[in-house]
Amino acid sequence: MNSKMVANKVVVVTGAGGGIGREIALAMARSGARVVVNDIGASLVGDALAVNPGQQVVDEIRAFGGEAISNSDSVSDASGATRIVEAAVDQFGRIDCIVNNAGILRDRIFHKLSVEDWDAVLKVHLYGAFYTSKAAALHFKEQGSGSLIHMTSASGLVGNLGQANYSAAKLGITALSKSIALDMERFNVRSNCICPFAWSRMTSSIPTDTPEEQARVDKLKQMTPDKIAPLAVYLASDAAAEVNAQIFAVRNNEILLMSQPRPIRSVHRSEGWTPESIAEHGIPALKASFFALDRSSDVFTWDPI
């Protein structure tokens, strides 16, 4: 991406020390943005790392002539999220886009899922997206522009085993994004979601206990994080001025527009319903349109393009 599609825009990318976040931060900088590289410097489960990878990404950006600063505040704390946004405003004078990418995993089968693991994942993903978006909202309103890009997941949009906390957070983010889009459209503020398929720290914990699971992981490894970055840069740019409240997925070289819940079938009974008539007529009439107990791998069955 050699064009300066986001020239002079100021972009915050959370969780940008590695994987998808790193590639988005690099792509934003190469496309002319001034970037705040946020990363708390933690492992996938939240343990501290010896060296903050966010500063390493900043060094990479500066090496090719880009502008960037690092920030190590946590999105899971409202005051931390405010400091992330203020770092952008203090250093670069404004804020134009936030990419809510930070995340952790605490995978557990549901009956073994602890309250602590539920809270930790919701705090980083859903609360984090809210906190950073809220911190930027007043700046966006005052300047009459802004773009929010949130990372959702097929685990939330479709479903997955052992990820009730992660799935709930990621599906919650799509509703949050839609609400922001509705509320902030009058101020020329956009909010969209990307469902990324890419091999990164966030997917490295996928089990490979069976040949089928190993085959799925082998396919995922073809989908490198850099494939996600072009869509993020586009959504941050003025070229995407008419794109709002959408959910996109990226699988290698494929971009998909994802559906959002809409009525698909109905039954009507003029005299109203009883539990018995629902059992005898209502549900049998609807059952042909029931959704199966799918996982994301059951829905996305074709090889990455």
List the keywords.
eight-stranded mixed β-sheet, alpha/beta, 10 helices, 305 residues, 14% strand
Task: Note down, in words, how this protein is organized.
This protein has 305 residues and is of the alpha/beta class. The chain has a single domain (10-260), classed as 3-Layer(aba) Sandwich (Rossmann fold). Helix content is 42%, strand content 14%. It has ten helices and eight strands. The chain has helices spanning 19-30, 53-63, 78-92, 115-143, 154-157, 164-184, 211-222, 229-236, 275-286, 296-299; strands at residues 10-13, 34-38, 67-71, 97-100, 146-151, 189-197, 247-251, 254-257. It has an eight-stranded mixed β-sheet with strand order 3-2-1-4-5-6-7-8, sandwiched between helices. Helix 1 (19-30) runs parallel beside helix 2 and helix 4 runs parallel beside helix 6. The longest helix has 29 residues, at 115-143. The chain is globular. It starts with 9 loop residues before the first strand and ends in a 6-residue tail after the last helix. The model has no long low-confidence stretch (mean pLDDT 93). It holds the Pfam family adh_short. Belongs to the short-chain dehydrogenases/reductases (SDR) family. InterPro entries: KR_dom (IPR057326), NAD(P)-bd_dom_sf (IPR036291), Peroxisomal_Beta-Oxidation (IPR051687), Sc_DH/Rdtase_CS (IPR020904), SDR_fam (IPR002347).
Residue-averaged pLDDT: 93
Whole-number total of structural domains: 1
**Which residues form runs of ≥5 with pLDDT under 50?**
none
Strand runs, count: 8
Strand order of the largest sheet: 3-2-1-4-5-6-7-8
How many distinct helices? Answer: 10
Give the helices and strands as they follow along the chain: EHEHEHEHEHHEHHEEHH
Rg calculated over all Cα atoms: 20 Å
- Largest beta-sheet characterization: 8 strands, mixed
